[in-house]
Write a structure and sequence with these properties.
Elements: E1 24-27, H1 29-46, E2 53-57, H2 61-77, E3 83-85, E4 117-125, H3 129-139, E5 146-154, E6 166-170, E7 177-182, E8 192-197
Parallel strand pairs: 2-3, 2-4, 4-5, 5-6
Antiparallel strand pairs: 1-8, 7-8
Helix pairs in contact: 1-2
The structure holds 1-O-pyrophosphono-5-O-phosphono-alpha-D-ribofuranose and uracil.
Length: 200
């Protein structure tokens, strides 16, 4: 090497390298907040208010999303709109095929679901099997006037005739990919949606 040749910089430390666990971010905290605000407005518009609306989140992260949506709808309508949770574990059609899961909590806000508009809320819609199980679970608590579905992400690949009424983001994905939703309060990190895996 000629004496004037600058010493090569050391190879950069491996910072910023994609972490295969965390995946590629497709929705930021702001995107999620905007999507939830839009869905809240859609719910109010669709129901001409929110007098009869009950939001039920499907564990796990659907519960946190339902809580946030109820807060937003309450702000828009200047009246309290309540959120609860609906566990679907024992109603799943893949109960035996999956590792054992501990049932989560079902909490139906008074005065129940009879005659009301129930908005089921989940983070990801994929095969549609969780939603099918939720419809079965809900039937044990009464007969809503209507049941609607709000999801933060619809990633496609339905296996059942299920369609969401309110979608934060339609996300075309490969079967082999995994969509992960992280929510502050639940995951103790900032809100994000990431995609990981898939064919290289
Ligand atoms: O449309 P599907 O194919 O049923 O998939 C969507 C469901 O999968 C995820 O739940 P998961 O079972 O991973 O549990 P989690 O909510 O505790 O993460 C997600 O939260 C939805 O509830
Ligand atoms: O990618 C997926 C599939 C099902 N459920 C999720 O949360 N993510």
């Amino acid at each position: 090497m000629c004496p004037d040749t600058p010493t090569p910089e050391p190879a950069p430390a491996a910072t910023g390298a994609p972490d295969p666990e965390s995946g590629r971010e497709v929705l930021t905290e702001d995107d999620i907040a905007r999507a939830l605000r839009r869905i809240a407005h859609e719910i109010v518009e669709r129901n001409k208010g929110a007098a009869d609306v009950v939001l039920l989140g499907i564990p796990s992260r659907g519960v946190e999303l339902a809580r946030r949506l109820a807060e937003l709808v309450s702000q828009i309508e200047q009246r309290e709109v309540r959120a609860g949770s609906l566990d679907v574990t024992m109603y799943r059609d893949d109960l035996r095929a999956q590792p054992t899961r501990a049932p989560a909590q079902t909490q139906i806000p008074a005065p129940g679901v009879d005659g009301r508009v129930v908005v089921l809320v989940d983070d990801v819609l994929y095969s549609g099997r969780t939603v099918r199980a939720a419809l079965d679970a809900l039937a044990d608590y009464g007969r809503p006037r209507a049941v609607r579905l709000a999801v933060l992400v619809d990633r496609g690949h339905r296996e059942l005739p299920v369609r969401a009424d309110h979608v934060g983001k339609n996300l075309p994905t490969a079967h082999s990919e995994r969509v992960r939703v992280r929510l502050s309060g639940f995951d103790r990190t900032t809100d994000s949606v990431t995609i990981s895996g898939g064919a290289r």
